[in-house]
């Protein structure tokens, strides 16, 4: 299990055929990467230089759209995850 | 439905023929992208590093002009949206 | 009517022949853009990350000089405006 | 023994065959560097310009994944370490 | 008359022959621009993001040296001025 | 004697043969510069823009490892020193 | 006489033959500029955006070493000075 640090969020990227959930897809031409995903784990939030912690605006289970080329891909056994900054997440698909 | 995060705003971009509303158009030559739109959804606002939240200066339904190449395009079924930062919005067309 | 957001200011750019008002012209060679204008509308001001609002130092009707290549041009029907940041404005012509 | 300064963290990089622990591997093609490691030592934390110290979110013994090309490699006798900034660490592998 | 905004300062640039006043000249080779001038008008000062105003350290009439390529040139009728940021001014010639 | 200013630290760089002390060496290929050194003098610390001084985390006599290409070399008679920022220092070798 | 503004410092650069004072010389190959000098005048200090003034850590008469290519050269009659930021000064030679 991955426990992200600070303002980082672990996402499981939705493959092409999963696009029907909420029907959301970034206008992704073939060459662009899929950019909708499920939130798997959230960090404690962003530490400001005043020592405050700004809690994340997303929670585990949310379906989100995010900046196309953001984050670092991680393989955990057969599963593939993407670790992004909260600021890379554009919106929650409700 | 898209719920934008933080200082992000969801816009529905006005196609060329819709330009009569308020008659506003960025001096857009053929090659430039249309830059007026309707506000569809607003985030809670910008978190400052003092933990304050600066609420957005636009609301759902406003017609706005914005920086030409700003934001990320999102397709939701047949509809196309643009998710921008509030700071990319230049003015409200009243 | 354009209502600018935050620290943005709407200007009506002065064409070449209007230069006599205050006689101010940036040393503009033919190729450079005219850079004096009239203030048409002002935003509420700049939000600092302490939640303060710093009101604009210009008001509607002021004639100003501004950084030559600043802002975004907007056409409203037959009229052409420029939306700049307050920080792009150099001085008021009194 | 290395005592890292401020927000720096000393890692012992996991070689390829050690990947089974938690089975975590960055999607590392041959050319990319391994990016999972064990925390060997932690600095006191990040000093903010308000004089606050934000303690590190990792502790000695944690297994972590980190940004692929981050940090400076250090040889201590036969052992090889990597000194990174805490912000280069993506997540703890639990 | 030009009333500069914020931390801006209006200077009248000293032509080559005026260099005897205080005898100050930047080691200006032919190709470099003259960089001593008289202060004609000062803005109210720099607004910090705490809402404080840091008053300018120069006053009308001061002779100053400034960074060679700083500022924007402005023609007011036959006179030529330069609008710089206070931070572009190096020193007052006493 | 060199008295460094602010957050600066004076180091005496360890030549190749001195590497045995603590046996620490950056994985330095021939072309890279040695990066372990002894602390000779420390500044008073970093001034934050709140007027606080963050004292240095190293003291005279510490053996440290630092970023390979950091700092400015200084010759004092026959001795050679390197003046770095405290932030360029990675860790203390204990 | 030059009165530097803010965090600026006026230096009189030491020519090559003056190098014996404190014997300090930056490892200056022929092509590099001399980088030791005497402090001639100091500004009031750096204004932080909290309205505090951080007084300079050097005083008139100090001999200092500074970053090689920093500052702007100024000729005052036959004398040549260099105006640098305090942050460009590395250390005081005691």
TrEMBL record, chains A, B, C, D, E, F, G:
User: One MF term in GO for this entry?
Assistant: protein folding chaperone
Q: Name one GO cellular component term.
A: cytoplasm
CDD domains associated with the record: cpn10
Superkingdom is Bacteria
Identify the keywords attached in UniProt to this record, alphabetized. Answer: Chaperone, Cytoplasm
What family, per the record? Answer: Belongs to the GroES chaperonin family.
- The protein depicted here goes by the name Co-chaperonin GroES
Organism annotation? Pseudolactococcus chungangensis
